[in-house]
Amino acid sequence: MKKELQFKEINKLTEEHYQLLLDADPSRKMLMNYTKRSICIEARQEEVFSGVMLLLPTRPETIEIVNIAVVKQFRNHGIGQRLLKYAQNWAKQKGYRVIEIGTGSTSFGQLYLYQKNGFRIYGIDKNFFVEHYERPIFENKLRLRDMIRLRLYL
Ligand code: ACO
After folding, report:
1. Of 35, 52, 54, 77, which alpha carbon lies 20 to 30 A from 15's?
2. What residues have CB less than 8 Å from 98, skipping those under 6 apart?
3. Which atom of ligand 1 is nearest to the CA of 101?
């Protein structure tokens, strides 16, 4: 039987949220910078904390999912996809017309997930992870340098 998933807007983030958000963005400095300006949505599965997502309004009609993460033991059970759908419905209700997301060029699983959910690539932020991160990041045996930008019209 499918377990029930609840979504809630959170005003005060706890260390539990930050620890999980760091799984999606290893830079605490970057994270602190956009967290203050974002709307935080948490997901709980039968009361148990299972995922988190940050939505940042970037332009009058555009909102960006700047961070999305699911607790390790709950991954690959559709929670990430449910968070993406929740973000789309939430944004539509608030009157946004565009939802965006960015991820590393080496994040193949994430790129698959976003495209599977209707996001289309519209640009590349070249050297984003070289210029904005203090330490080199490696993923899937590759040095991460570029950010892939994706967009979905609501
Ligand atoms: N590698 C391989 N495949 C993946 C990955 C991955 N890292 N992430 C998702 N997928 C695939 C799944 O296999 C699944 O495929 P299927 O539907 O064909 O079976 C599909 O994507 C859907 O996955 P969900 O179960 O809905 O995703 P999940 O609940 O695992 O959440 C998430 C995905 C949020 C990326 C999770 O893996 C996670 O927290 N990863 C660590 C943090 C992270 O990388 N966050 C995103 C960074 S970009 C950003 O924050 C804007």
Report:
1. 77
2. 59, 61, 62, 63, 151, 152, 153, 154
3. 51
DSSP 51-63: EEEEEEEEETTEE
The residue among 44, 15, 8 whose CA lies nearest residue 32 is 15
For residue 82, which atom of ligand 1 is closest to its CA?
A: 26
Among 113, 125, 138, 141, name the best residue to mutate to test ligand 1's pocket (greatest count of ligand atoms within 8 A of Cβ): 113
Q: Using most ligand atoms within 8 A of CB, pick from 27, 45, 54, 70 the residue to mutate for ligand 1.
A: 70
Taking alpha carbons only, the member of 67, 41, 55, 125 closest to residue 96 is 55
